[in-house]
Task: structure prediction
Amino acid sequence: MALERHAPDPALAAWLDGLLAPAPPLQDLYAEMAEDEWAEMMTHPDLGRLLAVLVRATGGRRVLEVGTFVGTSAAWMAPALAAGGTIDTLEADPARAARAAAFLERAGLAGRVQVHTGPALETLPGLPDGAYDLCYLDADKTGYPAYLDHALRLVRPGGLIVADNVFGGGALGRPRGQDDARAAALRGYTERAMADPRLLTTILTVGDGVAVSAVR
Result:
């Protein structure tokens, strides 16, 4: 049993990166985004593969994503869907939504992924209760507590709610009194997810921290 956290050394990380390298067309999207000012928002292959595994494990019939960006994570998840499975992905920024839709069309995934443009809190209330096997949150971090309220209604019992960036870039390791609005929202989300009796939650040290909650 190991009681300490062990980050992979560079050689191990390189070996893992080789195993997780995306195939085209995702590989092409990573290359296109390499010099983009927002490239750091791309889903790392570690997380992309994790999402694909979780989609498959939950049945992969319907997936909800809050925060599309340019379609990276949706493209990781879509091949793991069950036959006839679909993803609803929500993006507030019209330019990013259009770019994601164009990429998903080019990748042959447009029939499996529907991009909804507009603020998530305007779209979420109209979605049906208990319809989703998995909800993935990777949008504005101050919105996470409100997104959790919706996810609890939208994800079926036995399904998963997955939230990225719950470490806040390391901000949650600092004293609570130093929290800005973003860190306070992430801290509130994570503490609530761990304590809510309707959820069974663990925190994975993948990337900037991933909270995985099973709906009881």
User: Anything to note?
Assistant: The CA atoms of residues 43 and 72 lie 6 Å apart. The chain has a mean pLDDT of 95. The chain has eight helices and seven strands.
